[in-house]
């Protein structure tokens, strides 16, 4: 369900919450692509809720336009919203979602990780640099060089397509040199391979393997 949360600077934003099935084993904040809090991301939330994770998806475009969800073929609008977003303010919104999952009155408090896709994948790396999180999963994260120069403080696992022109091989090699502890898996696929709502990009086999690896990683870092 959609609820309102408040960042540390007083900004209020919408956040989709998917309760864990059974006893919660950890928390997971999912960071959006450039299209907003889409139904596809909510399906990812349900996947991990079924594994026992309390899940939240903060609406990172709310500082510009409340409730912004952009069609997958409207790249111009989506890119404009992404370019207008302040990554530092996005960290405040992500941290608010992390806190909302961790501070639920449970003892002990849930350990919370993040998982980001595309633009959100790059933000997941920044979250691992700046926020108190258990770990980060990066699905074909973009704009990675923007985050060079700062070490990651939490474990990071990345999933990238071998033919992804958004994060080509030279950028990924530079990222691995920048963060030697980054665990990277490559798939014979392109960008957005894990989005089943984008059939030209989706690779079901790569998606299944990547989510299996992600689930094992999340269980390890939040356990």
TrEMBL record:
<dbReference type="InterPro" id="IPR029058">
    <property type="entry name" value="AB_hydrolase_fold"/>
</dbReference>
<dbReference type="InterPro" id="IPR051049">
    <property type="entry name" value="Dienelactone_hydrolase-like"/>
</dbReference>
<keyword id="KW-0378">Hydrolase</keyword>
<dbReference type="Pfam" id="PF01738">
    <property type="entry name" value="DLH"/>
</dbReference>
<protein>
    <submittedName>
        <fullName>Dienelactone hydrolase family protein</fullName>
        <ecNumber>3.1.-.-</ecNumber>
    </submittedName>
</protein>
<dbReference type="InterPro" id="IPR002925">
    <property type="entry name" value="Dienelactn_hydro"/>
</dbReference>
<feature type="domain" description="Dienelactone hydrolase">
    <location>
        <begin position="21"/>
        <end position="220"/>
    </location>
</feature>
<dbReference type="GO" id="GO:0016787">
    <property type="term" value="F:hydrolase activity"/>
</dbReference>
